[in-house]
Amino acid sequence: MAGIALLLPKESLTHLAQKGIEEEGYDVKEVKFILTANAIGEARRAVAEGASIIIARGYQASLIEQYTNVPIVKLKMTGQDLGILVKKAKEIVNKTCPKIGLVGIQNMFANIDYFNDIFQVQLMCYFGNKTENLQNAAEKAVTDGVDIIIGGDIAVLVAEQANVPHLFLECTFDSIREAIRTAETAIYAAEIEKKHMAQIGAFLENTFNGIIRLNTAGYILCMNRVMEDILQKKEADVYLKPLHEVITDVDEKQITSVLCGESDLYSSFIRIKENAVVFILTAVKVDEVIDSAILSCNIIRKKVKLEADAMKEMYLHGFVAKKNFTSLKFKDKNMQECVELAKIYSLSTSPVLIKGEIGCEKNELAECIHNHGLRKNSPYVVVNCSNMSEKQQEKLLFGEENSVKESDSLGMFGAANTGTVVIEEIENLGKQLQYKIFQVITNSILIKMDAQQVASLDVRIIATTNIDLFKKMQTGDFREDLYYALRGLQLEVPSLRERPLDLEMIIMRTMKDKLSAYSRYHVLSQGAKEVLLAYYWSGNRLQLESFLDRMILSAKKRNIEEEYVNKMLVDLYPVIHKKNGENQIVIYKDPKAEELASILEQYHGDRTLAAKELGISKTTLWRHMKKYGISGRFKA
Description:
By secondary structure, the chain is α/β, with parallel strands linked by helices. The chain has 6 domains: 4-76 and 176-184, 3-Layer(aba) Sandwich (Rossmann fold); 79-170, Rossmann fold (3-Layer(aba) Sandwich), CATH 3.40.50; 207-299, PAS domain (Beta-Lactamase), CATH 3.30.450; 308-492, P-loop containing nucleotide triphosphate hydrolases (Rossmann fold, 3-Layer(aba) Sandwich), CATH 3.40.50; 496-586, Helicase, Ruva Protein, domain 3 (Orthogonal Bundle); 591-633, Arc Repressor Mutant, subunit A (Orthogonal Bundle). The chain has 27 helices and 24 strands. The strands form 7 sheets. It has a 5-stranded antiparallel sheet with strand order 10-9-13-12-11. Strands 15-16-19-14-20 form a 5-stranded parallel sheet, with helices on both faces. α25 (591-602) packs across α26 (607-614) and α26 packs across α27 (618-627). The N and C termini lie far apart (103 Å). The model is unreliable at 303-316 (pLDDT under 50).
């Protein structure tokens, strides 16, 4: 087979190889005797002259492998050739069980584990990987008192100087034949791979999907032209770069999960440049072992862009969503799953229902869904119809006929045409308006106030609520048809108290932002931090950020302690309960604070008796009273 170059360290081996190749008809491009000092240069020359693979032996093979990228097959002594040499060595020393030193590079030899039993010898191996190591190995064999040394030029020279019998590592054509067959197999496999890659290349360049091939570490190996167009980057610019750095919206953990075999695939919706893209990442397995991975990207059809005047009008009226998914950072697993679901919903045109307590990230998610979807460059309108009559709600949403103001004539739905309408607290809409919104969802029509005027409308509806709409539907206060139209794509936003990791992150990040904004320097004590983490935060993020703003603005000491935080929580958020027909303030306290207060009241504020009851010192009791903000109620 053309393309094989056989480079050998002995002229005798060269003659042996040429004779065997001629007799058995092997197709070898070149057979040449070379000096070790010229091995690297000879290998490069052979490749330049058309060799696709090189056969070499021992130290020469190691040099070529180490210092070039030339494909190489190492010529090994077969078990048969080694057996012949061992038998000859035993005859030379004429001993029953001689000690034979085998010196060379380990990659030269076949398995010799059972030679001692087969030939009744003590075969001792001395391996090295460079000239000086081989010399040291041969000298070690001499020192160990071997009866005879078998090895290459260096080993033979050392043996001669020490007057130790020796044999050169001559091989038969059997070893050369095995190396040629291995090289032929490698060339055949390379040609098959070349054809296979050409077929794959043709497929990739003629598919409508963007394709990226990854290695098992998640680094980009290649991509087709469609993917280059999507990324607006050339293949050379992203070669061997991590996928998550090139496409920042993908989840690095999900990629690793696929590449490790924990997940069969990873699929999601993302935005790349101006394109909405659905992608699937799947692993490529060879004999059940993951060899690589393929990422397939498909561009979702684009919505028609607004005209320049319409865009300008949209911005002037503030009909713009600002948040996007890259700005949302959460540590809580449930919240991360909620965000992933929102990404999936963003590429749909169906309505979305976002349920969560007051102050949760409902509005942020709504903005992200709009900006991640096909309506990104279209109006984003938010309406809240709470505390309005049904007539006022209808005028706001659907407009008023014959109105002088264009905005009043259009209504919010008309203003949001081609974009998104977010209806906050949708449970507060009147039943007649619920029907009209259902018509917008199912038939894309807008019914004007007189119920006769009908216009086509292209909007996506996102509704938010902080109650259970199912219960409201059961009582007859919410239409069944609208409920089920909204319920298909629902997001449940966990409260902040269910997300301790997020709570701590938001506290520290908000503190940093506020301190920077007000050019203040305060340090939150561990105790104060624990108070904030333990608080209920019924208003969630809205309440927390507002509280931190007030806390920093009114702080008079550099260190913010738990006593100060507790007092502020009491002042800002007392709980009102009815008792005997009158409103009474019930102050939120830590359970430990309740225990302290109860015992102090029991002993009428006597700290000595209270400390004795609690089994602590008066000093410790006073410190706890300050910590939980009850020191002012029980004077000394």
